Each structure stands twice: as C-alpha cells, then as structure tokens.
C-alpha cells in the first residue's frame, strides 16, 4: 500500500486514539490514515460516530499530507456521504478536543450535517474501501 519513496514515520497503532503522541493509526511522510475494520451490520450508532470523529480529525490535519480513511464495505462511506444527521450528533460522544477542533476549524455554529461536512471541509479526505486491497474482508 506504500507508494514509492513513502516511509512510515510514526510507529503504526490501530488504537491511536488512546495515545496522544500518535493521533492517527498510520503516519508516513506522505499520508495520515485511519482504519475502521468493523463490518457494519445495523444498529451502528457508535460506529457511525467513530467514523465521523476520525473523518473530522483527518480533515483537521494541517501537515499537507494526503488524508485517508479506510473502511470495510460500502455502509460507512454511504453514511458519511448521505447522512442528514447533524455533526453535533456525530460528535456528541467524542472527546472534548475533537469537538473543540471541529467547532474552531469548521463549523462554529454547529450547522452542518455529516454529509455536508464530508462534501465540504472534509472533501480532500479519501474514503477507501479496504476490500479494494483485501477482497476477503466483508460481504
């Protein structure tokens, strides 16, 4: 998955949110990336909130590296691109740093829906189905 000349710059962690020194699952000299491996099966409110929080954090990165959000199957991408749920709902269980970053950088009045945020401030974040690389994942 690494591009020519790309090097991992920070030890990867698929639980990066637990370590403030590693804000993303993967950081290289060319990209920052988050991975959501769970396959959605319905009643996915916490997964929806988690994938949206990751999108917000990727969109807020100002390092000029490519930002990518890897998910399994179509449901997470469809949710981010079509949800009329408010960003405040999407972040209401997130930590205060994520909520503050969102309000300060993108939407101080909390008026955007999740799909509006995805199409607007987060439009530069690539949404990638991991099945592209690992077809055995998901259905």
Summary keywords:
about 140 residues; alpha/beta; 5-stranded mixed beta sheet; about 15% strand; globular
Q: Distance between termini? A: 22 Å
Mean pLDDT: 92
Strand order of the largest sheet: 1-2-3-4-5
Strand percent estimate:
15-25%
Shape: globular
What this model shows, in words?
This protein has 139 residues and is α/β, with parallel strands linked by helices. It is built from five helices and five strands. The chain starts with 7 loop residues before the first strand and ends in a 10-residue tail after the last strand. The mean pLDDT is 92.
Give the SSE map.
Blueprint: E1 8-10, E2 26-28, E3 31-36, H1 45-60, E4 66-71, H2 75-82, H3 87-91, H4 96-105, H5 114-119, E5 126-129
Offer a quick outline of the entry.
By secondary structure, this protein is of the alpha/beta class. It contains 5 helices and 5 strands, in the order E-E-E-H-E-H-H-H-H-E. It has one domain.
